[in-house]
Design goal:
The chain is of the alpha/beta class. It contains 8 helices and 9 strands. The protein has a 7-stranded parallel β-sheet, sandwiched between helices.
Length: 264
């Protein structure tokens, strides 16, 4: 028997990276996993991997910025599967420009919508059922940028990730008495597809020094599978060995401005 037998989980940004690995681990522990993301093809590929391993999953493509679509996702999950026990807020998006001097309003809004507003929408939507049953787990993948803002994460990304950290703290402090567990995971550099949006895209040598998606997914699984009496409030993760960010920072400082470099 798995630790999550009989439970239903929603994982956002589940087509790749941390979401993909989290969905696979949750399913391996017996959860029925609803995987969301923008593109159907990667989602279906993850579903195929899970089913091949003997697990259960379903793909639900949607734009997480669309509030109505996000609410419908939760409604449909409850209607078809009966409940939501675990919500993994993992979907992430970063701006191309990183300095507050050059970030456009459209980029700012997009990052805030994906990394903060969608978390608010989905969290609020799953809470009534969790409270009624007397328990539930919400794990939000934030970022070390919430703790150490700067040019690596960028202004809007850092602000959004700090916002969800605070939001999960609110859920923990206000609803823990009703059995709700809220966790914020704040990873440093992880080798995932979001790195392709950086002004200076890390090469293979740089990526080799980073954490891998499965490392963070193991932390997600830990939070979801601990006995209900125990909650991990926050996890801060980072690569054991650091690397030189000087070129990354120099390029990021100019991206979007009049002196933007073409390198990256």
């Amino acid at each position: 028997m798995g630790a999550l037998d009989g439970q239903v989980a929603i994982v956002t940004g589940g087509g790749s990276g941390i979401g993909r690995e989290s969905a696979k681990l949750l399913a391996a522990e017996g959860a029925q996993v609803v995987i969301t993301g923008r593109r159907r093809e990667p989602l279906e590929a993850v579903v195929g991997e899970i089913e091949k391993a003997g697990g259960w999953a379903i793909a639900r493509p949607l734009d997480i910025e669309d509030r109505r679509a996000a609410l419908e996702l939760v409604r449909n999950t409850i209607e078809t599967l009966g409940r939501v026990d675990v919500l993994v807020n993992n979907a992430g998006y970063s701006s191309r420009a990183r300095s507050i001097r050059w970030v456009t309003k459209d980029e700012w809004d997009g990052v805030i919508n994906v990394n903060l507003n969608a978390v608010y929408t989905l969290t609020q939507a799953v809470l009534p059922g969790m409270i009624e049953r007397g328990g539930g787990t919400i794990v939000t993948v934030s970022s070390a940028a919430a703790l150490r803002p700067g040019l690596i994460g960028g202004a809007p990304y850092g602000a959004a990730k700090a916002g969800v950290r605070n939001l999960m703290g609110h859920v923990h402090n206000v609803l823990r008495g009703k059995g709700i567990r809220a966790t914020t995971i704040m990873p440093g550099e992880v080798d995932t597809p979001i790195l392709s949006r950086r002004p200076f895209v890390p090469d293979a040598k740089a990526r080799a020094s980073m954490m891998q998606a499965e490392d963070v997914a193991r932390a997600v699984l830990l939070c979801a599978t601990l006995p209900p009496r125990t909650v991990i409030e926050e996890i801060v993760m980072s690569p054991t060995i650091g690397r030189d960010w000087s070129v990354d920072v120099a390029v990021a400082a100019r991206e979007g401005g009049p002196d933007a470099a073409s390198e990256g």
